[in-house]
Amino acid sequence: MNLYAPSPGAAARALVLGGGVVGLSTAWELARRGHPVTLADPDPGGGASFAAAGMLAPVSEFHYQEQDLLQLTLVSAAAYPGFVRDLAAAGGTDPAYRRTPTMVVGLDSADRAALADLAAAQRANGLEVEHLGTREARRREPLLSPGLTSAQVAPGDHQIDPRAMVASLRAALAALPHVRTVAATAVELLHTDPADPERVTGAELRCAELRSAERVEADETVLAAGLGASAVAGLPAGLDLRLRPVHGDILRLRVPERLRPLVQHTVRGLVHGRPVYLVPREDGTVVIGATQREDSAPGPSAGGVYELLRDAQALVPAVAELELVEVTSRARPGTPDNAPLLGRCRRADGSDVPGLVIATGFFRHGVLLSPAAARICADLVEQGPLELDPHEQSPRELGSLDLAPFRPDRFSRPVLQPARPTPARSTL
Ligand SMILES: Cc1cc2nc3c(=O)[nH]c(=O)nc-3n(C[C@H](O)[C@H](O)[C@H](O)COP(=O)(O)OP(=O)(O)OC[C@H]3O[C@@H](n4cnc5c(N)ncnc54)[C@H](O)[C@@H]3O)c2cc1C
C-alpha cells in the first residue's frame, strides 16, 4: 500500500539536486508528505556522506560562539528517533541508529584543562555532561589507556551509520511511485517563466555516462549538492555561497573476536591538543577519525593516517592489534561561520527568489542535521516564497528556532541582481 500518495492540487513538483544524506532526507520528507519528487545525483551517497563517522553529537561537538548552530543541532538530534523509526518502516532496512553514549577523555594535563573548560561552557549552555574520573572510565571501558588524565560522558550524543542511512533512504524512495531518481548532474538552473525571469523553474541535468541531457521542470528546486552547489549555473546573480572543501581522512578497522567489544562508548579524546575519535559499530568494526585539512589534496594523507592511528592508540592501546580495512578521504562542505546555508535567497525587492531552496554547507554536522534540514526544506517548499519585505513579516522558524542565521545569502552582496533568463529550448 502506498501511504504517501500525492494529494492532487496541494502537491508541488519538487526537484532535489544532490543525493547525499541531506538531499536524500529532503527528497524522502517531501515524498512522504505527498509531493512528486525528482532526485538527481550522478553518485548518490558518494560525497562527504560516504566518509562520515555518523556521530550525532550536539554536546561534544559544541564550539564556543556557535550558539545558533547548537540550537539547530539540538533540534535535529531530538528529531532523530522519530526520523529513523519512520525511515526503517518505510525503507525496510535498518538505518543503524544506535544510542551509544559518548565518552570524552584527555591524555595530558593540558588536555584535561581544555576539556574542563569545555565542560563548563557546555553546562553553561544547558548541555548534559557528567564528570567521570579515570577510574570509573576504565571500569566502563577496560581497554582505555591507564595514562588518561580526565574523562566525562555526554549521554545524549549518539550515532548512526551514514552508509546504512543512505541505503535506507534510497530504499524508502524507491518504494514510492511518485519519486523518480536520475543518475545525472545538474549543470544549470532553469529560468523559463517569462513573467518572472528570477524564478527558478527546474534544472538541466546531464548524464556523462549516457551522453544525454534532460530538462526537468519543477515548482520548487532544492539545491542540496554539497560542495557541488556553487558550480551549478543559473544561481541568483550575486549569490556568494562561499563554500570551501575541508578534507577529512577517516579509517575503518575490524576488531578481532578476542578484543570485542573494543569500546562500547563512542570515545572522543584530546591527545596533546589533537582531537581523535573511535566510533564502535555493531558489526565488530570501529571508525577512527578524522583529520581536518584545508590543503588541496583530495586523496588520503599518509601523515594524517599516521596521526590518527598514533593518537587513537594513545587512548586505546589495543588499536595496534586491529585490522585496517579502509582508508577514506572526502571533503566537508565548509562555510565561514561553520553553519549551514539553508533556506531561500532574498532578491532586490526584499522578497524571496521563487522556486529555489538551498541546503548545503553542512560542514561537520550534515548527518546530525539531516532530519532538521529535511523538515525545513519541506516546510519552505510548502509555504512558498515570502512575497513581501521579510522585515515586515514574522521570521521563518522551525518551532521556536529562528532560521535567519542560516540564510544562504548571508555572505552575499546586500542586493542580489536579477538572474539571466534561460533561452527557450525543447527537452533534450
Ligand atoms: C571524514 C568526515 C567525517 C564526518 N563525520 C561526521 C559525523 O560524525 N557526523 C556528522 O553529522 N557529519 C559528519 N561529517 C560531515 C558530513 O559528512 C557532511 O556534513 C554531510 O555528508 C553533508 O551532506 P550533503 O548531503 O550536504 O553533502 P554530500 O554528502 O557531499 O552529498 C552531496 C551530493 O551532491 C552530489 N552532487 C554534487 N554536485 C551535483 C550536481 N551538480 N548535481 C547533482 N548532484 C550533485 C554529489 O554526487 C553528492 O552525492 C563528516 C565528514 C567527513 C568528511
UniProtKB/TrEMBL annotation:
Q: Which UniProt keywords apply?
A: Oxidoreductase, Thiamine biosynthesis
Per the record's keyword annotation, is Oxidoreductase included, yes or no? yes
Q: Which reaction does it catalyse?
A: glycine + O2 + H2O = glyoxylate + H2O2 + NH4(+)
Pathway listed: Cofactor biosynthesis; thiamine diphosphate biosynthesis
- Ranges for the region named Disordered are 387-428
Can the keyword Oxidoreductase be found in this entry's annotation? yes
Q: Report which gene this protein is encoded by.
A: thiO
Quote the Pfam families the UniProt record gives. Answer: DAO (PF01266)
Q: What is this protein called?
A: glycine oxidase
Q: What is its EC number?
A: 1.4.3.19
InterPro entries in the record:
FAD-dep_OxRdtase, FAD/NAD-bd_sf, Gly_oxidase_ThiO
User: Which segments constitute the FAD dependent oxidoreductase domain?
Assistant: 14-380
The record ties this protein, via PANTHER family, to:
GLYCINE OXIDASE, SARCOSINE DEHYDROGENASE-RELATED
